[in-house]
Known about the structure:
Blueprint: H1 3-15, H2 22-27, H3 30-42, E1 45-46, H4 47-54, H5 58-70, E2 74-79, E3 82-87, H6 95-114
Antiparallel strand pairs: 1-3, 2-3
Amino acid sequence: MGLFDRLQDELDARGRQEGLSPIDLLDLPPGLAAIAKKIVRRNGMSLADIAQEMNQTPEETQTVLDDLVAKGLVRRVEVSGEIWYKAFFARKADKKLSTGVWSALDNLLEQDKGE
């Protein structure tokens, strides 16, 4: 596998990274963003609490929560025998990896100049 293939694989992997970031909250439709913000502020909530806060039926809220879970932004966790929803925060990008990739690319370019 060549350098550019490895670089593309790394970029693809970063694009698939799950988790909630501040940018995600801005990109979400208003209904999803409102629920995500409430979950973040309270460090997790039950379905009943979220439905009550959003003035929705539990069924409507469950549909929205299922979407947030599918997007990798929220996780279901068990708290005292009850299912709660908690924000799943994105891992901070690893700066060392990208530095190493660019350094390797520079080395290859220098080798090409010498040949």
